Please model this.
Amino acid sequence: MTMQEPTFFILTALVRSPLHGYGVMQAVEQLSSGRIILKAGTLYAALDRLTSAGLIAVDREEAVGGRLRRYYVLSDDGRAALESAVERMRSDATVAATRLREAYGFGMAVQHA
Model:
């Protein structure tokens, strides 16, 4: 199954270190160059789904200002799924680039009349 872009960026956000929900939100926006802006409800539903699927795990929880802040970490299964998605994207991009090169020449942009 193809990994959806928001999932791809959530997992990517967690590659380097554990992040809390708001940190994931900010990282996804930055990593996607502002193309993906997750609303809180969408993000937390995704985090719950990814946790249930075993792709991420709760690293720790801490109380901040009377509220519980949960930090998430990429699991081994999540790393493997992300690596698989990266390889699929590379392969797909190679196929598309080859066809574009064959049809329009190397480095030529597609132009429509």
Notes: The two ends are 37 Å apart (CA to CA).
